[in-house]
Design a protein that fits this description.
Helices cover 10% and strands 63% of the residues. The protein has helices spanning 2-26, 186-189, and strands at residues 31-44, 56-71, 74-89, 96-113, 116-126, 131-136, 142-148, 154-167, 170-183, 208-225, 228-239, 248-258, 263-274, 278-294.
Length: 295
């Protein structure tokens, strides 16, 4: 009887362990997420400084968040990038933006062959708050004129394509039939004397521009050295319907140099070429000591 009881107890214990192991295996989620929030602060103060200088206080907050899915032959990668910064100087009555960005990228993949997958992607870009052009009045006082705002412009780009993936740190997506929508507030395109296409390529009294073209994107992240990473994001677009030789470009470089778990030195550089917005390169650069929180 004791042997039978011992046998049943052993059998029950084995079954429970097997069930727990099976449950753990079954509950492994195909979703993986990773994010980082950062705060950059900078302050300069001068008093009787012979070389000159202007007192200023600036701050920048940023979020970089990834939510990825992988199961069987399917992958779905989502990335949110948002940043906003302001600077206040003694000699200006206005707080001015040092950064303003809201971007979301999503790409769905179904394995085709080797490292290639059929893909469908979506990219959305805009800004959070109004942007201004600054000048001087006849008395030399600084003035500002509203020029942009939330969803003015806003960009929505999407289409089917082919995705090549080496690993999570190196991906290239090619989409030869991509739609691009540019949204603006029709207030700007309805002003007296407005010329078709002069505000982000949108015609008079319209609030949207449609383009069809070829889109290519690349993502590459590497470790430069211990605790120093560089993230490269490149987007290229050629509009079949108008001036296909004028290729739009958007390149972003993010370098993070970790000091410890919560402190790092952050460097961000972005270069944009879009002749519908500005006939030349637009660039921005943000550098500073950051307080970071990973989640």
């Amino acid at each position: 009887m004791k042997k039978l009881a011992l046998y049943l107890l052993t059998l029950s214990f084995t079954a429970v362990n097997a069930q727990e192991a099976e449950t753990k295996t079954d509950t492994v989620s195909p979703w993986k997420s990773k994010g980082n929030a950062s705060l950059l602060l900078n302050q300069s103060n001068f008093s009787n400084w012979a070389a000159g200088g202007e007192n200023n206080l600036s701050g920048n907050i940023g979020i970089n968040y990834d939510l990825n899915y992988k199961k069987d032959d399917w992958t779905w990668d989502n990335k949110l990038m948002a940043s906003y910064g302001l600077v206040k100087t003694n000699n200006s009555p206005f707080e001015k933006k040092t950064d303003d960005r809201l971007e979301f990228n999503s790409i769905l993949g179904k394995k085709a062959s080797g490292q290639w997958s059929y893909s469908a992607f979506l990219n959305f870009r805009t800004q959070f708050t109004k942007g201004y052009i600054y000048g001087k009045d006849e008395n030399g006082a600084e003035t500002r004129t509203e020029n942009t705002g939330f969803l003015s412009p806003g960009y929505l780009t999407f289409g089917p394509g082919m995705l090549w993936t080496k690993d999570q740190n190196l991906k290239i997506n090619l989409a030869p039939a991509t739609s691009k929508l540019t949204f603006v507030d029709n207030y700007y395109t309805s002003l007296p004397g407005y010329v078709d296409g002069s505000y982000f390529g949108v015609d008079a009294n319209k609030s949207m521009r449609y383009e069809l073209g070829f889109y290519a994107s690349a993502y590459y992240k590497l470790d430069i050295m211990a605790n120093v990473t560089a993230e490269n994001i490149l987007n290229l677009y050629s509009n079949y319907l108008e001036d296909p030789q004028n290729v739009d470009m958007d390149y972003t470089l993010n370098i993070v140099m970790k000091i410890n778990r919560y402190l790092s030195t952050n460097f961000a550089f972005q270069a944009i070429y879009d002749d519908n917005a500005f006939r030349g390169f637009q660039t921005r650069q943000v550098f500073g000591l950051g307080i970071n929180y990973g989640f």
